[in-house]
Write a structure and sequence with these properties.
The structure is a homodimer.
Chain A (H helix, E strand, L loop, with lengths): L4 E5 L5 H10 L2 E2 L3 E3 L17 E3 L3 E5 L12 E5 L8 E5 L2 E2 L6 E10 L4 E9 L5 E10 L6 E10 L4 E10 L21 E9 L2 E8 L5 E10 L5 E4 L3 E10 L5 E11 L6 H14 L2 H19 L2 E3 L2 H17 L25 H13 L1 H13 L1 H10 L30 H17 L2 H22 E4 L2 E4 L16 H23 L3 H7 L4 H12 L22 E2 L18 H5 L1 E2 L6 H7 L6 H12 L10 H10 L3 H12 L16 H15 L3 E3 L2 E4 L9 E8 L2 E8 L2 E8 L3 E5 L2 E5 L2 E5 L7
Parallel strand pairs in A: 23-24, 26-30
Antiparallel strand pairs in A: 1-9, 2-3, 3-4, 5-6, 7-8, 7-13, 9-10, 10-11, 11-12, 12-19, 13-18, 14-15, 15-16, 16-19, 17-18, 20-27, 21-22, 25-26, 27-28, 28-29, 29-32, 30-31
Helix pairs in contact in A: 4-18, 5-6, 5-8, 5-18, 6-8, 6-9, 8-9, 8-10, 9-10, 10-11, 10-12, 10-14, 14-16, 16-17, 16-18, 17-18
């Protein structure tokens, strides 16, 4: 069984399954994403989220606040559902093909993660008994980022007759709206207004303008049915092209539909550029398009595949997650990674801290160019972050938005949005991680250092000294079940790291060539550097003597503990059933917060404090956030609880494929997918990336026979392979490196094997 | 000069002045309120808030939350603008009378607070030179609560000719909407739908239904022009009656327009009852209506007038404020006192803690029946308060809504709304104050004790013990520039008082007749009583060793101090120019918070702590709330800073008449009006009402020659008169009472004089 293939046989036509599969089998390449809707449609009663999205393309939409306090966000950005080019209708001897009419004699659905395509195979019989085999292949090309390609292969099984193919290009679209959901406004809103609809050179071309953001989106469709000429019908918002062919029993007919999407953020003359683009891809032999997709993915898997031996389901889930990371991430700095990737409209396509803390670890260690673009995205939006800081009363520095597409804050409820100042620390952390993995000073000068500096400046203004300690008040940590607290451990620890690294980077750069110039441009002085270091050295980090743990914030310990055992299961997720004030009053966590801080910056505390904290928080954490279990998995592994780590890992890995959070229909959970990766590499592998170098502390879950992963550190590619007995390190290329395994130092020249420890925790 | 008369000569026709006077000269009686709009209207370009309101009559209206967290309020109540019966058009020999056409030869506007009427006098000349004197008298009857009466006296000065009077009754009304205000939704909404419009027995009758709250409102108009018969014209939503008379030079014509308003909250068959009501009032000689108004007010002033000698402006402002208290307060338990009384739509007609902490002090000591009804209102809505507590996750007790009309919470932004749990303590405090002033155990059994009990139960669930202390976390105190804090001093102190008094009242009642029965009904046990006392005894009350003050909450001292001196004046009020997170991060106060706690429960701290706290908070308080300066005035007086007390008092007293907060157009500030009263009685008079009895500590502002006030304590009416030398106490009726003056005990039999101390502070 090929674990790169995810397949469903005789798939269900149950509406709930289908809407879920729209997400699971969607096609995306980081630029565009198309949900896996049936080309031929569904019965009218079926709920479907029919969508095509472009990374970074947005419109503004009003967000009314119940009370108009100064500075509250009243306009947000939203991802757009752009032109619908999925529709293809087949008429078999006059009867329209549908999964819900005639007879489906067999069907399956396939995601092939090596070929980068999805396939739908159907054997269908019409009411009159005409039997036909249909194979629908879809691809969002990783190589040709603007291209989405559909191929229909049709083979009459028991008849000669007429097949009509009607391929549509629809410009009238709107975002998903569920009239049964009271949380959504009373009507759909059309963000896109078609400004140009035409057919030119057998290509249908539509140009649409967003209602407020001033973005042009161009969609082009080219249909090809061997040498047949199709008839165009052009309406106000729709172009169809109809092909009629005489089909012969047993003989395949192959139909191609090329969609090219472009936007004016990336193209100066989008229509012209996309026309040229389409002509270029159409001019290539189609096998080349497929082949280059396969080559691209071969490189990808070769570069970064996580292997798990001994658990087929898990291996598949791990591949799936990794594949979706690649599908979701923008390959340029105009986009980023939305919480739901390009698979749906959940969270309105916003980018969160997920990028830096859950997704960058994968890209930093495997796909450096992507990693750089994610940082460039933050750099590109730095001015908005500065404006945001001013709006919040800070006289200096930049505060990144909690959720955004184009750089402006979109939080509707600021206590668990804008107040999450840790986003600044998260962004800085990812810059440092990139630096630690690459030592790429050029990139630091290009943008990384400035990000470090402006985020550090924000902390200096947001915090203040009190009784000799540097306090950061009124912020919200990762755990949104407690908001606007003082000295959130996670936030302060990251702020400390951010301040230290800002100073350190300034010192590194100021000694480098052109460094002085850079410092002058940044108006950075030695005094400011020292003020960063002083604040970092005196950072308030809550510690509770009685329990010996790090409290989540100053006042966490004085609150009542929520009794999770007595909470009925239908109360979860608690946020759906409890007033925020109720949650805020208790010791109850939505997700890893201090535990996460102990993972990412483990050296701030001794291992006993970390262990006690883990034990303490585990009892009051609901994991109502999909960002939680992977962190608990990592820390369980770190603390020698391998079986527990394995259980948490399973929850994380299977989240989307098994729809365990029951909302995968709205899109995949990209952060959790990154978390799955982290749980293997940082959790079981015990990998850490620090200033001192890289280190490992591998453990092996009982259920597995082995696992492996790869790390690109500086110029060196290292394959790490763990089995029941030992851990092997193989230098695939690059120079020899010092590595630490179970706190022992080794110099890796070619390969190295270290015996596995039963218990890796001190 | 009669200080019960507030008069404007040749009043301005500037639009901004007029809209302000709509508030200042409004007519209200606690049941209904009519803004002082010109009967004949304004030019189209003028902004006017034309309104008639009924206390306690509301509709529901949606309030969308930007993010839909569980339990957030999505529907609020709003006061309604009901039928418009103000319009009276005059045609003088064919020309329509208007202040903006023809020539106004003279005019004034009068509020007569002894007669309980407003008057508009105009001498007007038409374009053709017809000169006429018009006197318009309006009255909202205190005696006949459903009646609003307009009288026109017209005297042709230089002509004989035709006068036409067109009196309208308009059913198509909507709440005020300002298209230039971006904070208001895009269109007006008609809350009222007319279900019946008719003319019967020369009375026009309209019945309207609210859109959602299921309330019927009935308005009836009866016009009388001596023996002239008017012609009715009935349209879908409007009835007019036109009278034509031959006027003779020098001879007065008198026209009366009776409006009767009723509602189905108070009347089972509102139309029938109001028809009868109107017939009754019309059948009385009109002078009786005016006379009874005057008698009612004579009693009122006699009972409670605050006298200030030596400052005419202030005296007038003091009378004005007192008059508005009477005009604003509901005389039954179906209404309460809206933040803006019945003078406008500001704060949507909601009732706040203002009632208990700023308005009840006046009523408790002067108008006992009104005071009882205000408590009954809270009792009537106790079930909603229990529901509210459940919604917020509390397993027991009641939590009163921060803002409401019918009992359900209406806060749009819960951190400075719902989270203000001190409302519970405020309600309890007012119950105790009523009890201390009356010793009325019957009323405690009727409703007071149950309120004390259910509010106390809430604290037990909201708080928790930590390290031996009872903590109350995640609440907002009076100062909304810091939200959702732990152990707000004001809140905890009131909670302590609430808990103690709940236990005490249970013990008192359980020894009284039928007491056992009551305890059984309330399911109150000795154990629960003890738990109240234990929590009260161990209540966490923040104290800072370093400064020797009571910090506003646990973490107040660790925040940065806001530099008020460096803040440009255009930044105030800060809430209009600063993001909440910005304010929350600083030591900066919108209003008295801890200082207020030190006023209402002064025995919790020694006077030095109180003084240090006062000094500390004064420097960081903006008084951006109208509830602040009166409290600072009281505490300045208490601490011997009489001049400062006087200055704060002036700010408080003149707020509306001098429009110092620049928003009196939206309505008067009732709480501040109560605060003015408190500043004299509690501030300069140093009056306190405690379990131990009543006490005084009078001081005399330099600018005054004297002041006096009255107190109804138990069965005794005491007149307190202070001059430059002494303070006189006169027992007007009732039994002798022990009183304390400057901490000395006296027994007041008939009268008593005590020399004034230069400095009353220890």
């Amino acid at each position: 069984m090929d674990q790169f293939i995810y397949q469903k046989e005789d798939f269900s036509l149950d509406q709930k399954e289908l809407i879920l599969e729209e997400t699971i089998f969607h096609n995306a390449n980081g630029y565009l994403g198309v949900r896996a809707n049936f080309e031929e449609g569904y019965p009218d009663t079926y709920k479907t989220i029919r969508g095509t999205y472009i990374n970074g393309v947005y419109d503004f939409t009003p967000m009314n606040q119940a009370e108009k306090l100064h500075g509250l966000i009243e306009e947000k950005q939203t991802i757009l559902n752009v032109a619908d080019t999925q529709e293809i209708l087949l008429y078999i001897e006059g009867q329209r093909f549908s999964m819900f009419e005639g007879t489906v004699l067999g069907s399956n659905r396939i995601l092939d993660m090596k070929k980068g395509i999805t396939i739908r195979n159907i054997i269908w019989e019409s009411d009159k008994g005409h039997r036909i085999e249909i194979k629908i292949t879809r691809m969002a090309s990783f190589v040709f980022q603007h291209l989405f390609l559909i191929n229909y292969e049709m083979r009459p099984l028991n008849f000669d007759g007429e097949i009509e193919i009607v391929s549509a290009h629809k410009g009238k679209v709107s975002n998903f709206f569920d009239p049964s959901d009271p949380r959504v406004a009373g009507e759909t809103f059309e963000y896109l207004h078609l400004s140009d609809v035409k057919v030119e050179d057998d290509i249908s071309i539509m140009t649409a303008e967003t209602s407020k953001s001033g973005i042009q989106i161009c969609s082009l469709v080219k249909n090809q049915l061997e040498s047949t000429v199709g008839r165009f019908v052009q309406k106000e918002t729709e172009v169809t092209q109809t092909f009629t062919v005489r089909a012969q029993k047993g003989k395949k007919i192959s139909f191609y539909k090329y969609t090219v999407l472009g936007d004016s953020i990336r193209s100066a003359d989008v229509q012209k550029e996309m026309k040229q683009y389409l002509k270029d891809v159409v001019s290539r032999p189609v096998f080349e398009l497929y082949e280059r997709q396969e080559v691209y993915l071969k490189d990808f898997w070769n570069n970064s595949a996580l292997e798990v031996e001994g658990d087929e389901d898990l291996q598949k889930a791990v591949y799936y997650n990794q594949y979706q990371l690649l599908s979701s991430v923008s390959k340029d700095a105009y986009g980023n990674i939305a919480a739901k990737g390009l698979s749906g409209e959940g969270y309105e396509g916003h980018y969160f801290w997920d990028t830096e803390m859950y997704l960058q670890p994968f890209f930093v260690l495997n796909e450096r160019e992507i990693s750089k673009n994610l940082i460039r995205f933050r750099y590109r939006t730095l001015e908005f972050a500065k404006d945001n800081a001013r709006e919040l009363g800070h006289s200096q520095g930049a505060l990144y938005p909690w959720r955004t597409i184009m750089g402006k804050e979109c939080s509707g409820y600021f206590p668990s949005g804008t107040a999450a100042y840790h986003i600044n620390g998260d962004v800085a952390y990812s810059v440092v991680a990139y630096y630690l993995a690459t030592k790429d000073l050029e990139f630091m000068k290009e943008c990384g250092a400035e990000i470090l500096l402006e985020t550090a400046r924000l902390w200096m203004d947001a915090g203040n000294y009190y009784q000799g300690k540097f306090h950061i008040n009124e912020v919200t940590g990762p755990d949104e079940y407690t908001c606007m607290v003082n000295n959130n451990y996670y936030t302060n620890l990251l702020a400390q790291y951010n301040l230290r690294w800002a100073a350190k980077m300034v010192r590194i750069l100021s000694t480098a060539e052109t460094g002085e110039q850079w410092c002058a441009k940044m108006h950075i002085t030695e005094e400011e550097c020292r003020s960063f270091e002083e604040a970092a050295d005196n950072m308030m980090l809550p510690y509770d003597e009685e329990t010996g743990i790090n409290p989540q914030d100053d006042s966490f310990m004085q609150k009542k503990r929520w009794d999770l055992e007595k909470t009925p299961s239908e109360m979860f997720p608690l946020l759906m059933n409890c007033h925020p004030l109720n949650l805020y009053r208790y010791q109850i966590c939505k997700q890893a917060d201090t535990v996460m801080a102990h993972f990412i910056l483990e050296d701030a505390q001794d291992i006993d404090t970390i262990r006690r904290s883990y034990d303490y928080y585990e009892k009051i954490t609901t994991h109502d956030s999909s960002l939680s279990t992977c962190i608990f998995s990592i820390m369980a592994a770190r603390l020698g609880m391998t079986q527990k780590a394995y259980d948490y890992f399973g929850e994380s890995a299977k989240l989307d494929l098994f729809n365990t959070h029951k909302n995968t229909k709205d899109g995949i959970h990209t952060a959790n997918m990154g978390g799955t990766y982290m749980a293997i590499v940082y959790g079981f592998g015990g990998f850490r990336l620090k200033e001192e170098g890289i280190s490992f502390r591998p453990v092996m879950p009982k259920a597995w026979n082995g696992y492996s992963f790869k790390i690109l550190f500086e110029d060196s590619k290292i394959l790490v392979r763990v089995d029941k007995k030992q851990c092997e390190f193989i230098l695939e290329n690059g120079s020899g490196k010092e590595i630490s395994v179970y706190d022992e130092k080794y110099f890796l020249v070619r390969n190295l094997a270290v015996s596995l420890k039963e218990n890796n925790a001190e």
